[in-house]
Queue: 3 jobs
Job 1
Amino acid sequence: MKSNNRDFLINLVAQMMVFATNLVISFFFTPIVLNKLGNEAYGFVGLVNNFVSYISVITVALNSLAGRFITLSYHRHDEKKVREYFSSVFFADTILGILVLGAAVILCVRIEYLINIPDYLVPDVRTTVILAFFSSTISLIGVVFGVAAFIKNKLYLNSLAQMTANIVRVLVLAATFWLFVPHMWYYSIAAICAGGVTVALQYVFTKKLIPEITIKKEYYNPKRILEILKSGVWLSLESLNKMLQTGLDLLVTNLFVNASAMGLFSIAKQIPVILAQIPQLIANVFNPELAKLYAENKQEELIEKFKFTIRFLSFMMIVPLIGFVVFGKEFYTLWLGNKTVDEINTIQILSILTVLPLLVNAYVEGLYYANTLANKIKGSVIITTIFSVASIGTEFLLLKTINFNPLIVIAGTSSCYMIVRHAVVTPLYCAYVLKLPKMTFYPALIKSVAISCVIYVLFEGVRRVVIIGSWFKFLFVCAGVGILGYVLVLILLFNKDERKKVLQMVLKRKSK
């Protein structure tokens, strides 16, 4: 148990350091790049990244479950299957990467006729797309090398690789924007360099952690790929659902509004996207132990670990999410000092609409892995597909029929559907997958939402009596309410034994 707690904390700290580096990059570079490129060009950086994410609709079928099949075979000591899964996934990803790059070339030929691009930005957008898809190809080819750290429950090694890559990304961005005429495709150049570093380091870690597993052509087995794809096809549909709900917003804004509005929306999504990474990073830290418990058929321990994941995610996320909702306007006013009051208000409203679904999803993020472990994704995906189609259909209908701020319609429609999906579908289906009573996870979810309301009242009360006009005062106030908020959440969320358990984990880490 001590070893598990130690590994958990090391992995958690490493994951949070990756998050912190991403936050620092966004915090310092976004205002600089906005000043150099302008709203329109900056919006296309986000749009191109969305284009790349659309490829995941195809690749997720293979790569999201590859780790599961490799890990379960490894813990069951079936070396033949491990080698076959590992090599087969590598070669399949290589082929997919080449196809992705070819698709990018085709996309770029007439891209100015597919989306609204100001004439002066067409060459830059075209170059950015090509380089971004090349970066995606590099990352795709190296996906399988990230599995070794997962198998050995040493995710901090992958985090180390990501942090190193982030440093490289910062250096490349700083050098290019400082030394040369600004171009949006510098982001793609930096991504290529960072991706190369990540793949190289994960390859080294793979050789160190599982030297007995090698990639050889004779290990390639199409049956293994089909086995993964058979289960992964539902994850592809799930990825399509996510794209329909949140991945099309910049594209829809470009087509229905204009490039400048897309730029504001892209800015508004920056912090919510970063906040969304926190529950994902924390949940990922639990996954190796969950996979091990599932492989060993330790059902009771597995269920208790899932329940603890929910409580821990709620503990970590309530304060930053409510803090962003309450103090967001003050943050944007200080961060984007060159923006007008109207632009700041628009960015703040869009940010809140984007982050609202996280107030539910963040608390249940860890439950999604139950579907992957049990290989029972179909039902959840079908229900989610209904929500996704309804969301995009409602969005288009409202944009065509009502005279209302289109940005609010685009951001608000998907948020409403996502809140219902996270609050209803996820807890019910995960209880079904784990063969528990259907209301098992609702008490914990309702308690977390109720505590969120308490923290909101506290933070809003402070905001109303304190005038924030400088970074020093902003940081001082946020630090104060943040500490108070975490203390209250710890008291309200956990019982005495649970609080003791959380504190013991921290003390054990220090004793190491």
Job 2
Amino acid sequence: MVNKYAHSLDDWNYARLIELKNNGLYAVASSTLELYHEARWKTLNNGTAISISGDKLERFSLGDACGP
């Protein structure tokens, strides 16, 4: 995220990742898509990584992957 936005909580809502699970569909998108497609989006926590392999979905924190 550009540094000037990182320190403003007002701007954080425009830099979110959202996910949608519905009838065999799984999508991760920028929160901007909420403006164009109404759905039951769920906000992902900042620093969440997602690994999809076949029908297996795993979530983990990027902090866990990067170490202390």
Job 3
Amino acid sequence: MIIIAGYTRAERQKRDAAVEAFAEMARRARKQEGCLDLSISSDSVDPERINIFECWRDQQAWNAWRKIAKAPRVALREAHVKLYRSDKAEEPFSRNPRRRSSSRIGNSQ
């Protein structure tokens, strides 16, 4: 699993327009084979921050998306974004931690 997570910044008065500029790309990504989730959103605390989150089934799916993504041209400032790799996903809010279900990618239990 590939996770892209972090944030960037835009001028306070331009942040919401910058987020909106990415809406169509996010809609297209969510329909893309292998996209588990993608969100580019305004931060609820910092008026300049734009949060970025992508989750892809695997490197191949993410690479295919990167070839066709076509991000909008938006003036953003600093970016603090990382790529994370994982082969495991778990239910985070299980009522009984001992019975927490887990699954390997491609092998749901």
